[in-house]
């Protein structure tokens, strides 16, 4: 295991240290000043997450209004450090009840120190699983001081828990109603040229689960992905169904998934941890169903006028609809006056981001609203630099739609006691960076 | 006042102040800018109030550091508003947002002028302030008379006149012609009679600018300045508001003294006496007090007074008083004051006679070397460096050496350089010098530049009695456990050369020396290994009687490095191995290095360079600089044509070096030279060893690459042996003027010929400039780009490039800048169009000035006939009909060429191909003949196919027959002549590697007789290098 951190700092946006923990003494306590001087106060912030100043490397990440900075002086594993930060934030969130920001940190100093001691040792990351840690770091966030009932909770043997075969699940869980929730969340990244040809397109998806199951259940998940289906057809020696199969790239599983079984039988089978977790992640680069097509025409009429026409077409089923659609159409910095005509939604000019922002709250499938705007520009002193025409950006959420076409074919739950379970499956597609050049 | 009631503005400002972070602030600002844009774009127009409000907002945003690139029109238009609040905004925002080059300002000139000549004082002040801040040349032309009138007017209040003086200063700086010298001298004198100190201070600023340009015209002002100084110093009639912490107008005092420093001397005894009295008072009256502001003011006056005293060359008593004062300063604990004291002492050193007095403070200065503040340490170091002379050199250098081990890393390089220079300059004896430098290398090896140890080697080589001492000394150092690489280099060199002088001492047998050196081999880098190899070769040569075991050991090492990846090491290993088998011949080849010609120490030059860089531009410094730069010219001057090697330099005269050439008269110089060349020539007949010699010289060249020095010797030789003058042609382009004082690096003609065959490379190089060229050819068009690179830390000025194109080329050179900034490269594209075929060559007449050097070279440009050729393969079916259709002169010409340099057929084919003639094999049944084809492009002929047949005689390779056919008679003739020239004037280059295309020398416009075969050893050597 490589070293991931010599020290970790939590800073607010002004650069004040909220909390810090030094794991090794190879970095000085004042190194964070260097970070403040050389990174926060310059325009470097946000350009590169890894910077070297003096003999130290700084890895930093902004989460809401907090900067988390890791300082190392040796040759550390950067990816490991960032993964550590991400996991630690997830852990804190689960302790604080969802929010991770400056206030949450200020309210939970003691807890954070306790957790920081536990999750990293001499610069080496340790167990970051909230389920396990909650067993022995029982002090909960101040948000819910009365919800925990320490009296009727037996503190199980933590050591056994961590070292056992199923380290992620406690034994002896009992639920009245056995339920499984499964969400497939996909985000679409797209870069399209002004002519409508796709330059770059991929989907990153996650399978999120929430389990409220008694005992030690064994779950088996079947998707309509290629590997699984092929394997199945081989086993059952019958031709594959004519349905679409999806080829998943870069699949990563939660540690609970039995990989030997996956390798031999190509099935995703696992004993789930209790509560919420991310079962798998994947990426798809081919055969993506784009939910929206954008057809922009932007004409510059002379030096002071522009005409913008944007047509957005929804290409998913007519019964479905998208929520929270926002289309940001960039305009030059010297925009002075704008006037709009839209067939649905509302549009306005936002000078702070130099965009025309067109919002449509509910966007049904198979429709194509349009926006036409006239933009007047003010003349400037600077000699005419041609406008760079940044891409149009789009945000949306389409429930019950997957851009990859991925579907859950089955989710089987098997437990010794053989109880009945209720399975809930949801799909949602969101915009990642959905950009159309104009 | 103007802010009253602008609620929008105050809300905006409070919004900004309430922002938590930069990002929020930016969002708020961008929103506001959007709002302002919308308002300005509003068709209905804005009320003056709104306009004012938004322009204030713009200014506020601009002050926060955001880019505001619109709305200037609105700001400028506010200037012409009738009411004060709007006018004020207009002026303030215009002077903040715009600079003198903005076009919008032109719109305002008229309004500004109206305000200036108007009756309203407030408006006058606003206008004058704006012009004083951003007025440009146009303002200068149109407003200067009015401003002058205001300044001189007696009816104006001092408030306005003050501003008018400063405004005029700005206008004068923009355009010096606005102040008429004849008229203004009297008026200026008159202005100095002014009683109001405010007006006086402003006028004095104006006077400083005027006097710095032309002090003669303002003689009349001199006594008045003295009078003002006297008035201030005696504190007569100085109003309370102009005294600052009890000091009467320190600003005016400083400025008056600054003005006086621009006058070379003050002759009038009365004035002089008064002045000294005043200065005396200033020197006496200043002391260090608690109050910082008071200190600052009084020290400003004091240091200006010190500068002035230095300028005046006052009597010794006053000088010593100054030094005593400074001595007090450097003993103070306050770092700022100490810094100033040290700095001014360093300046005092420029004045003669004070050195002795300063020396009294030496102990104090040395303690300053240990100050925690680095800037003070630096000043102390500078001062020590400056005050060093023969008497205290030993102490100071030893002090520096001691300090070196504890000094800051950032300072070590400078420190060691300075110690090295001082040791060299003031060495009481040379062994001490060697000791010091070796100690330096030992203590601060990382910070020692190559120049330092090169210099030691030079001294040791030039001084016979020093050699055994140095050899013994370096051996002592090598015995230490950890040795720095630089030390290994010096020791390897010195032991290689002189270890045989120690052979009788114990522990110094060749074998032992070898083993000491060889121990270091695994630890050193690739730059040091060659030196070690040379040392081994020399040790081996000096071992008498030969030691079989040592020889085997060394040969094994050479063997090992024969396959080294580093070309330098490999070459040496191979050559030494081969040479060491030659036995007796080895003695000659590896003979002791000849003495070096005396050179100015490059260290001193380096130090001077860096001093010039950091110098500030005060009056006294300016003069000092001029002096040093003159000195540089004297010492730096390279002899014209390199006829005499560099003259010894005055700075080195303290070092006792038995000089070979310097003291002797001209004839003996020549003898000395030919002697030296004798040694060179001895090795000439064996080309590899000549190479080797250059090689050995290589690491020792202290200034400039070795080629330059050897070349100058070569030129000298060719002058001596007058009969061979023709060879000069190969070294210097025939058209080059002999007045050229700058020696080019490398052979210009060779560079030209190389460029005839390729499209990019260096056309010309000398110590100051390098001209590179890059060309692209497309049909009859060409695009050449000249890269003019300044190699120095000072700009090259009066740069001029003229193209003298021959009739057949149309050339257009883009603008060449007049100056090339230090270490910068300028690109000048050059368009070429070929009109008709011709062999004439375009010439670039290039000149520049560096310091006082004026260099002018005429360079041939490689836009030659073959650049417009395009090789084209032709099949037999195409070839023969063409060949037959072009029958007889003038379209088809045939000529038998004799005296061709014999070469095998493939080589000839290669040569032809390098001129872009495509060889078509198989067309001619006779294998001894070559057939080639190409297309020629020019504007008149367009694309024109040319067919060439060359018949050779296997029995006599010196003659051949060329037949050339094309559709254009001139083209046929020119191309035939071109090929003939290339074939005939081929030089005999015996060991030119086959891969490199042979270099044809000087292709002159007219066909020339075959040149004297250049077998002169000197030129051979030059070629090799």
From TrEMBL, chain A:
UniProt similarity note: Belongs to the adaptor complexes medium subunit family.
SUPFAM superfamilies linked: Second domain of Mu2 adaptin subunit (ap50) of ap2 adaptor, SNARE-like
MHD domain location: 177-437
Identification of the protein by name: AP-2 complex subunit mu-like
UniProt entry keywords in alphabetical sequence: Cell membrane, Coated pit, Endocytosis, Membrane, Protein transport, Transport
PANTHER family attached to this UniProt entry: AP COMPLEX SUBUNIT MU (PTHR10529)
Segments crossing the lipid bilayer: none
A biological process from GO: intracellular protein transport
Subcellular location: Cell membrane; Membrane, Coated pit
InterPro entries: Adaptor_comp_med_subunit, AP2_Mu_C_sf, AP2_Mu_N, Clathrin_mu, Clathrin_mu_CS, Longin-like_dom_sf, MHD, Mu2_C
GO terms under cellular component: clathrin adaptor complex; clathrin-coated pit; plasma membrane
Name of encoding gene: LOC111289574
Gene3D superfamilies: 3.30.450.60, Mu homology domain, subdomain B
Keyword Cell membrane: yes
Membrane topology, from the record: Peripheral membrane protein
TrEMBL record, chain B:
Annotated region described as Disordered, given as residue ranges: 665-685, 987-1017
Main location: membrane
Membrane topology: Peripheral membrane protein
Superkingdom: Eukaryota
Biased composition (Polar residues): 668-677
Keyword flag Transferase: no
GO molecular function: clathrin adaptor activity
Compositionally skewed regions (Pro residues) per UniProt: 995-1010
Binding, a 1,2-diacyl-sn-glycero-3-phospho-(1D-myo-inositol-3,4,5-trisphosphate): 7-8, 49, 53-57
InterPro entries xref list: Adaptor_Complx_Large_Subunit, AP2_complex_asu, ARM-like, ARM-type_fold, Clathrin/coatomer_adapt-like_N, Clathrin_a-adaptin_app_sub_C, Clathrin_a/b/g-adaptin_app_Ig, Clathrin_app_Ig-like_sf
This protein's UniProt keywords: Coated pit, Endocytosis, Membrane, Protein transport, Transport
Quaternary structure, from the entry: Adaptor protein complex 2 (AP-2) is a heterotetramer composed of two large adaptins (alpha-type and beta-type subunits), a medium adaptin (mu-type subunit) and a small adaptin (sigma-type subunit).
Biological role: Subunit of the adaptor protein complex 2 (AP-2). Adaptor protein complexes function in protein transport via transport vesicles in different membrane traffic pathways. Adaptor protein complexes are vesicle coat components and appear to be involved in cargo selection and vesicle formation. AP-2 is involved in clathrin-dependent endocytosis in which cargo proteins are incorporated into vesicles surrounded by clathrin (clathrin-coated vesicles, CCVs) which are destined for fusion with the early endosome. The complex binds polyphosphoinositides.
Family: Belongs to the adaptor complexes large subunit family.
Protein name per its UniProtKB record: AP-2 complex subunit alpha
